[in-house]
Design a protein that fits this description.
The protein is an alpha+beta fold and 385 residues long. It contains 12 helices and 9 strands. It folds into 3 domains: 5-115, Orthogonal Bundle (Butyryl-Coa Dehydrogenase, subunit A, domain 1), CATH 1.10.540; 120-230, Butyryl-CoA Dehydrogenase, subunit A, domain 2, CATH 2.40.110; 234-384, Butyryl-CoA Dehydrogenase, subunit A, domain 3 (Up-down Bundle).
Length: 385
């Protein structure tokens, strides 16, 4: 049930003030310490950010897709490390349970995810399986009333802090590709489950990823999502449309922050006796940023509305993820150019955002995967007509 207009606007205003007054001042600290302060995470819980997309029945806010992208765009106005703290609870860490979980699984896990009591992680990527997710090797062998998991996952977001993992594992070794893959809810305290040290990354300090290893990990059969084997990959695909719109919205929010920084700097910085914003080639870069950001924002709003109306938006969601994440990369590059030498210095936020946004074109489906999805859907639609 969508929020009424006044309630939504009040919530957006609260998030906007939280981002600007509480998070933006912490950006440099988080970058230097590689850690989001615990008191800030507690404030996120109080605001309900961990339960944005989880239904009210289970303690969440239950935002529609159109509402979620507006909130996420506000959150994108600051370092993406902050959103990453609760991003998996909002997206891939909870949506599989929401979409395909049994009633018992929803009752057991969703309230704790919505409150932020638990942080979730989505464990799909492996050393030999990334974009080719159907080639994953982690196995789940049935033994009586439980499964035994063996294998390793790589670059798993929030793994160092997760209390529960949604794990994709192969239950049918005889069936190649995605059809033999199932999804499991695996508590962190499960015997044989271990998490490696968090990775050192190019950017997004404060947002942690790590390897997750499974060594004869017992998982109750009741934790097989949906209670049906071989549906794990289908569950993952169902989650992707919403996740791709979410990522497009984050990219749009960061683009808006970069544009504001650029306009401010171009108004103040003088060269040749006038602000650089009065020079036509700088104006051209500003205009390109604004035009592309507007296009991205409009794309995401349209696709989110279609999603809420029940349309199949697999192509549109891929378009949004592809265009918006590539777009913010171009905006960040122009921002460095507009700032000149200052844009290369850590004293200004531009250098950090330039590194941070590079990841958006890789995770939750690379730009090249989005291109393949878009083109394949186009060819399939043409054949069916």
């Amino acid at each position: 049930m969508p929020l009424d207009t006044d309630t939504l606007e009040q919530f957006l205003d609260t998030v906007r003030r939280f981002v600007r007054e509480r998070l933006v001042p912490l950006e440099m600290q988080v970058s230097q310490t590689d850690e989001v302060p615990q008191e800030t995470i507690a404030e996120m819980r109080e605001l309900g950010l961990f339960g944005l997309s989880i239904p009210e029945t289970y303690g969440g806010i239950g935002l529609s897709m159109s509402e979620e992208v507006r909130v996420v765009q506000e959150l994108g106005w600051t370092s993406p490390a902050f959103r990453s703290v609760f991003g998996t609870n909002v997206g891939i860490g909870s949506q599989g349970i929401i979409i395909d979980g049994t009633d018992e699984q929803k009752q057991a896990w969703l309230p704790r995810l919505a409150s932020g009591e638990l942080i979730s992680s989505f464990a799909l990527t492996e050393p030999e399986a990334g974009s080719d997710a159907g080639s994953l090797r982690t196995s789940a062998r049935r033994e009586g009333d439980h499964y035994v998991l063996n294998g390793s996952k790589r670059y798993i977001t929030n793994a160092p802090h997760a209390g529960v993992f949604t794990v994709m594992a192969r239950t049918d070794p005889e069936t190649p590709g995605a059809r033999g893959v199932s999804a499991f809810i695996v508590p962190r305290e499960s015997p044989g489950l271990s998490v490696g040290p968090h990775d050192r990354k190019m950017g997004q300090q404060g947002a942690h990823t790590a390897d997750v290893n499974f060594d004869d990990v017992p998982v109750p059969a009741a934790n097989l999502i949906g209670g049906v084997e071989g549906q794990g990959f289908k569950t993952a695909m169902k989650v992707l449309d919403r996740g791709r719109l979410h990522m497009g919205a984050i990219a749009n929010g960061i683009a808006e922050r970069l544009i504001e920084e650029c306009v401010r700097y171009a108004s103040e910085r003088k060269q040749f006796s006038k602000p650089i914003g009065e020079h036509q080639l700088v104006q051209a870069m500003l205009a390109d940023c604004r035009t592309e950001a507007y296009a991205g924002r409009t794309m995401v709003a349209d696709a989110a509305r279609r999603f809420d109306d029940g349309e199949n938006i697999a192509t549109e969601a891929a378009c949004c993820k592809y265009f918006c994440t590539e777009m913010v990369g171009r905006v960040a590059d122009r921002a460095v150019q507009i700032f000149g030498g200052a844009g290369y210095m850590a004293e200004y936020p531009i250098e950090r955002f330039y590194r941070d946004v590079r990841l958006l074109r890789i995770y939750e489906g690379t730009s090249q995967v989005q291109q393949i999805v878009i083109a394949r859907n186009m060819m399939r639609d043409a054949a069916s007509n």
